[in-house]
UniProtKB/TrEMBL annotation:
Record-listed S-adenosyl-L-methionine binding positions: G78, L83, I129, E130, R144
GO molecular function, one term: rRNA (guanine-N7-)-methyltransferase activity
Pfam families: GidB
Role this protein plays: Specifically methylates the N7 position of a guanine in 16S rRNA.
Alphabetical UniProt keywords: Cytoplasm, Methyltransferase, rRNA processing, S-adenosyl-L-methionine, Transferase
Compartments reported by the entry: Cytoplasm
NCBIfam families: rsmG_gidB (TIGR00138)
Gene Ontology cellular-component annotations: cytosol
InterPro entries xrefs: rRNA_ssu_MeTfrase_G, SAM-dependent_MTases_sf
Keyword Transferase: yes
Name of the protein this chain belongs to: Ribosomal RNA small subunit methyltransferase G
Family from the record: Belongs to the methyltransferase superfamily. RNA methyltransferase RsmG family.
Source organism superkingdom: Bacteria
Amino acid sequence: MSLLPQIEQSLQALDVHFDVATGQLAQRIEQYLLLIEKWNKIHNLTAIRDPRAMLTQHVLDSLAVLPHIHGPRIVDVGTGAGLPGIPIALARPDSQIILVESNQKKAVFLQQVKIELALHNVEIRMQRIEDVRLTGTVDTIITRAFSELGKFVALTRNLTVENDEDRRWVAMKANCADNELRQIVDPFYLETIIPLAVPGLDAARQLVIIKQRI
């Protein structure tokens, strides 16, 4: 049974602007979900097995961050099965998404997704994040399930030699405890915490946005 009707309905309910037509985006999301389902049987990419549950808990959750992602060059740290980077790349084809994943099996899966979906705006780095060095500016560094906030900013602060006061570190969290927020220390600071509404998902979701004093 096709997932397209549910995907299209869910995208409309999300009420977020996409840079491509909703129907086209829905088709590519369906391809992506079916690839995850296929590879998941062997490589255990995610504990969620049902593509319909993946749509809500993975894809819509990832797309909900779009209004808060600034700039065209985005680094997704510890991306796993490509979350949130692949959905962002599908919705914003003019962006440049760099997926960082040290696990070889997951990185091979990401390469296959890039090939089958013709994602020319995606680059995959099979490296530990502390070993990644990029040239040029990076606008947003995002993570969905990588680590606590202190480790996240510490390991990514030297991704590029270029400092930019507008750069954002964006962490997707279920709930952010005070003790984790206290890990954000100078020159980093908490800019804001934004609650996210994801259609069909009752669990609390937040975006923690961090910036750096230059």
